[in-house]
Specification:
It comes from Wallemia hederae. InterPro entries: Cyt_P450, Cyt_P450_CS, Cyt_P450_E_grp-IV, Cyt_P450_sf. The chain is α+β, with helices and mostly antiparallel strands. The chain is built from 19 helices and twelve strands. The protein has one domain (about 65-505): Cytochrome P450 (Cytochrome p450, Orthogonal Bundle), CATH 1.10.630. A hairpin with a 5-residue loop joins β6 and β7. α8 (about 180-195) runs antiparallel to α13, α9 (about 200-215) crosses α10 and α10 packs across α13 (about 295-330). The protein starts with a helix and ends in a 5-residue tail after the last strand. Bound molecules: protoporphyrin IX containing FE. Protoporphyrin IX containing FE binds near residues 318 and 454.
Length: about 500
């Protein structure tokens, strides 16, 4: 007979034996998965340089939490193509110009991949997620936004905002970091150039403040659900407010352009072109697309949102660095000023025109060089949609994050002698008008990407920076307060000086 106490102990012995068996099974399964993870990583990596094993589960997650230029550089130094894994996402980086361009133009194998939260934050129906023919047709409809006529109508808007900010900056009594102030200048310029006066000032201020919620929600890794209180939830709310106002601007613009009025902002140029295409008053590359489809207020609103998203950080990075590089190179700034006084006929109050900007060869060379030395975007993540035979020896597996880099092409000593130096002269034609070697090596200049998704706003971006720095050089003096972090780079999607560019601006004495 087994009494109750013995039965209890025997039962608990059996239960503990059972628990051990479950534990052993779990351990075997986990160990097998970990071995499998390593085997899959090794198989995908093939002969590529990179860590020979992946940190279990998280991979190189710590590096992606605190991205730094130094980390990227050490990756690029590993080889023309190299491999790494983050959270089981297999990543291949291309350092060599030839491979970066191949990825950028490989529409049938790879497409741009934004961070996981982007679809929720920007709206899954946003045109930025299109690819292939439907994407290139959509883009054709947008060409009307950056014609010479359109660009010259944006200039007076831009200039009035520059002067307003210069006034504020020169009134500051002590030096401060100008990164956020320059972001505000860019945001106000973008909103006014894109939407004109359709959106009241209080709403523009609100959008500008709320847009920050969108920026901070586009992190590499985010809480997976858009629950109240999360960054993604706040960003979706911010997007809805902005979209409501952009739709309103589009509806107002359509009504005004139908009355035959002159376009005053980017949305006007779009709705005017649509109106003309519909009534057969227009015959250019975009007319066919614009005749075939009418863009709704919501579509126009989402394009404006995508422009803010694509431009804000990159423009701010570009503007911060050109101010810093010119302050650090007074001889170059003096040459910019000499050109500005000459082109403006000594009249610093004269309105900048597109013809004047065409004559600002040296100032434009400075912008081109600044974007080369400190490219706002150092790489762009793409994702393979099928196996991609990138070289004879290596095929990138489907589902790989494939990253064409931009920075190494722009710092290649074989193309740009002394690549870290800021030398605008390298872009100037020789005495016979022949393009310089740097200009001839156009395939290395990947600042704005390459291929079907290359930057749609690049002409506008360069004009904005040229007009801004041209006006700044004749209206202001500025001192860069150099700190130990001025030449260190922080990567917040785009790149910035670690100290945010500490400076002091003052009004410039005008020579009689
Ligand atoms: C200095 C400023 C800027 C830089 C460095 C920059 C850089 C880039 C880069 C590297 C890409 C990815 C290209 C690719 O994958 O091949 C891109 C795409 C894009 N950019 Fe810019 N950008 C700037 C300003 C702007 C501005 C001002 C706008 C709009 C007004 C704009 C609109 C876009 C759009 C819409 C795309 C996506 C195009 C597509 O997918 O078809 N960007 N930009």
């Amino acid at each position: 007979m087994v009494n109750a106490t013995e039965s209890y102990y025997m039962g608990s012995r059996e239960a503990s034996g059972g628990n051990h068996a479950v534990l052993n099974t779990v351990l075997v399964v986990v160990a097998s998965l970990l071995v499998l993870e390593q085997a899959v990583y090794k198989w995908k990596k093939g002969h590529l340089p990179g860590p020979s094993w992946s940190i279990p589960i998280i991979g190189r997650f710590a590096d992606s939490l605190n991205p730094s230029l130094e980390n990227y550089m050490s990756g690029w130094k590993l080889g023309d193509l190299s491999a790494v894994s983050v959270f089981n996402i297999f990543i291949v980086q291309a350092a060599k110009n030839e491979y970066s361009r191949k990825i950028f133009s490989s529409g049938s194998y790879a497409e741009p991949c934004l961070v996981a939260s982007a679809k929720k934050v920007l709206d899954p129906n946003n045109w930025v997620f299109l690819n292939g023919k439907v994407h290139s047709d959509y883009r054709k409809g947008l060409n009307v936004l950056f014609t010479r006529k359109a660009l010259s109508s944006y200039l007076p808007i831009q200039e009035s905002i520059y002067r307003k900010y210069f006034d504020q900056w020169t009134k500051e009594s002590t030096p401060k970091s100008y990164m956020m102030a320059m972001r505000d200048l860019n945001m106000e310029t973008s909103l006014k150039v894109f939407c004109g006066d359709y959106i009241p000032q209080h709403a523009q201020d609100d959008i500008s403040d709320k847009y920050w919620l969108i920026t901070v929600a586009l992190e590499l890794v985010n809480f997976p659900f858009a629950w109240p209180g999360t960054k993604v939830y706040n960003a979706i709310k911010a997007r809805k407010v902005a979209i409501k106002w952009f739709e309103y601007a589009s509806a107002q613009s359509k009504a005004r352009m139908a009355l035959g009025e002159e376009p005053e902002c980017l949305i006007d140029h779009w709705t005017k072109a649509m109106h003309e295409a519909k009534h057969n008053d227009r015959d250019d590359g975009s007319s066919k697309v614009l005749r075939a489809r009418e863009f709704s207020d919501n579509e126009i609103a989402m394009v404006v949102l995508s422009f803010l998203f694509a431009s804000q950080d990159a423009m701010t990075s570009g503007v911060v660095y050109i101010f810093q590089l010119l302050a650090d190179n007074p001889a170059i700034l003096a040459k910019v000023r000499e050109e500005q006084y000459r082109v403006r006929g000594g009249d610093v109050e004269s309105a900048t025109t597109l013809d004047m900007l065409d004559q600002m060869t040296y100032t434009r060379a400075c912008i081109k060089e600044s974007l080369r030395v400190k490219p706002p975007v150092i790489m762009v993540p793409y994702m393979t949609k099928k196996a991609f035979p990138i070289t004879k020896e290596y095929t990138v597996p489907k589902g790989t994050m494939l990253i064409p880099s931009i920075y190494p092409s722009l710092h290649d000593p074989a193309v740009y002698a002394d690549p870290e130096a800021f030398v605008p002269e390298r872009w100037l034609a020789n005495a016979d008008g022949e393009p310089s070697d740097a200009e001839k090596a156009a395939s290395n200049y990947l600042v704005f990407g390459h291929g079907p998704h290359h930057c749609l706003g690049k002409e506008y971006a360069v004009l904005h920076m040229t007009a801004l720095i041209g006006a700044a050089s004749v209206l202001m003096d500025w001192d860069h307060i150099v700190t130990p972090d001025s030449n260190n780079v922080q990567v917040i999607a785009t790149i910035f000086p670690k100290d945010g560019f500490v400076a002091k601006f003052s009004k410039r004495e005008q020579v009689a």
